[in-house]
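Re: D-glutamic acid structure - here you go.
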Amino acid sequence: MGALFCAAAIHVQAEPVRPMPNIIIVATGGTIAGAAASSTATVGYEAGKIGVDQLIDAVPEIKKISQVRAEQLFRIGSENMNNDHWLKLAKRINVLAKQNDVDGIVITHGTDTLEETAYFLNLVVKSKKPIVLVGSMRPATAMSADGPLNLYNAVILAGSKEAVGKGVLVSLNDEVSAARDVTKASTMLVNTFRSPELGALGYIQDGRPYFYRQPSRKHTTESEFDISDLESLPAVDVVYAYANSNRVALDAFVKAGVKGVIHAGMGNGSFSEPMKAGLIDARKEGVVVVRSSRVGNGVVARNGEARDDELDFVVSDSLNPQKARVLLMLALTKTTSTKDIQRMFYSY
Ligand code: DGL
């Protein structure tokens, strides 16, 4: 009997097809939704003009890689983002992040204050799910607009397992950055978001995220800050230092009743003699003083340019002034102890 050949059923274990991630896009406005009079105009446009559904329709590939839903929360230029917007956005993100049918969240945002919103959310969102902020430097109507690919990449990132547990992320121009480190570094270039000296966390290329670093400071689910019952945030303002700077603006902030002030100092957070007198008087009024630096890189060292122990000042570590303001506002919802607040600046 001839050998019976039976074709062995060759079971090739196919890669399990991963279901498409459920992504929600929460839109706030900005240039990514901006419209100008012509395709060559990259300034002088109206930010936030285009609705989120139209943004998604302009990138049909998004629906091929995700089950996407959208919410239009605001339609503003981010220069007008304020504490009320932040509280409303953070509360909405926390509600959405708890839902089982949400795997990741993308927030479209203007680039002017994107870093501040990202850091605020990094401190108050109570989820390990990917939260990705995205914007663009050219309006949606521009030739070679950067928004569509930025939005597509942000959806990829928000649906990736690699982004889980890394805190709030910022994704533009093929890079992935940490909310704490990233800052807007150019008024006009598409690669404006940089994490000077520390670098980005990774890239997105050809629809795939590549991570090379992890954020090392506490964020999201490790954070002690809770905004769920807050209707406002303590008033904190920033006073900028320069050659010949005086205390006039600082005194006005104190008179207006701020609870904290960030000094955007020169170099290692240094100040002029008139400003020093103003900061000492502010501290005597109970205002918490944080020494940051206009330089934007490096650590503002305690007891370096000022006798912080003696003056009862706090230093911002490496947070730039606008992010130091975010952390101080949240710190003041918990404590006025400068010892405790200093611990927070070394933790987040
Ligand atoms: N109005 C600015 C903003 O919304 C435009 C900058 C941008 O979004 O790129 O932040």
